[in-house]
Design brief:
Length: 340
């Protein structure tokens, strides 16, 4: 009888309304032949948890197709080939895949990228040398256009994207102000990543601190969170400021009611005109042609010590659910990965 293997996977059991809870997920186990008829079977070494996965759980038009109840939770992964029906891949190869929250998936060979573990820890292909690092690089350079001496403010500054944005900003000669949640994260951003200033968005006097930290105003705001932070940043934007709109994590589980004293959309638009602001949303895949350039520059900055990174690794497939919910509440500290 053919050898079999048990693949354990987490599926979306139901669509969440607001913050997801454990009831929106379930764990399945399926026993299958180890050898796939086509493609390759992987043993997942790491899979990535990212804020965009919250968006995939909602119905409705977006830049990517929504999950349906019963689908495996999606996402990037790094796996070792344990059986292959494709001549391009052999047992023992380490590959970057998009196989989601499961332990032993079968994946199509097309779209897999072989990783060389001697060049960098393979987990970095999901973080600083992967999609989040590329998001930081392409969003900041193509839309932010950083220039020496300018003030760059970045939110979610200790995370996978924000930490890279701020460090690239320093390389380009900007004065960098990071915004993060809590004393431990702000200390890390300032002392270990070398940002000029780091502010805690939960501090009661955050609004005053932000103003004081940007005496020359803000030339680039790299938007990762939206909500209250955006409301406080907006009046500080300088003429000709650039705003790469990368993410709005504070809004992914719904909107807080807008305080009546805040400017209305027509008032915001007036400021966009008067100050000649440039706001541009983007998805990292818009810049996929720049992948080689990104890998070359980022690998160089990591080896020269100009870019540092931090990973938050959670062990055990079943821990993925609380870790993902924690990501949406700021409980991760660095690029969040699961070692299932
Ligand atoms: P992070 O590792 O930064 O984790 C998310 C962080 O967001 C949390 O740790 C928390 O940090 C912060 N956060 C959560 N809730 C709130 C809130 N209500 N208010 C303020 N901050 C909050 O994630 P990533 O680096 O992977 O992603 C950062 C952003 O970039 C996200 O918005 C994501 O959707 C976006 N993104 C966009 C891409 C694109 O192609 N446009 C691609 C990849 C990411 P803290 O504790 O410091 O508040």
């Amino acid at each position: 009888m053919a050898e079999t293997i048990v693949n354990r996977r987490i599926i979306m059991a139901s669509r969440p309304s607001g913050m997801p809870g454990p009831e929106n997920f379930s764990l399945e186990e399926v026993e299958e032949p180890l050898q796939p008829p086509t493609g390759v079977r992987l043993k997942t070494l790491f899979f990535s948890l990212d804020p965009y996965m919250r968006g995939r759980m909602d119905e409705g038009p977006s830049y990517a197709q929504a999950l349906s109840p019963g689908d495996v939770m999606e996402g990037g992964s790094v796996g070792e080939v344990i059986a292959s029906a494709d001549p391009a891949f052999s047992k023992g190869d380490i590959v970057l895949a998009y196989s989601g929250w499961q332990t032993h998936p079968v994946v199509k060979a097309k779209g897999l990228r072989k990783l060389d573990p001697s060049l960098a820890p393979v987990s970095t292909a999901l973080g600083v040398l992967g999609m989040p690092g590329m998001t930081a690089y392409t969003g900041l350079l193509n839309i932010g256009h950083p220039k020496a001496g300018e003030t760059l403010v970045v939110a979610a500054a200790s995370g996978a994207v924000g930490s890279a944005v701020g460090q690239i900003g320093k390389i380009k000669g900007c004065r960098v102000v990071g915004i993060a949640g809590g004393a431990e994260k702000t200390r890390y951003v300032r002392e270990e990543l070398g940002f000029d200033v780091a502010l805690d968005h939960r501090a009661p006097d955050f609004a005053e601190q932000l103003k004081a930290a940007c005496p020359q105003g803000i030339d680039i705001y790299f938007e990762n969170v939206g909500g209250r932070v955006w409301d406080l940043v907006f009046p500080l934007l300088n003429d000709f400021a650039r705003v790469p709109v990368c993410g709005l994590i504070s809004q992914y589980n719904g909107f807080a009611p807008r305080a009546p004293e805040l400017p209305s959309v027509p008032e915001l638009m007036e400021q966009v005109l008067v100050k000649r602001l440039r706001l541009q949303g983007f998805i990292v895949s818009d810049f996929s042609a720049q992948q080689n350039e990104f890998l070359h520059d980022m690998a160089g900055w990591i080896s020269s010590g100009q870019v540092k990174y931090r990973e938050d690794v959670v062990d055990g497939l079943e821990k993925a659910v609380p870790a993902f919910i924690g990501l949406l509440q700021g409980r991760n500290f660095g690029k969040l990965l699961v070692r299932p």
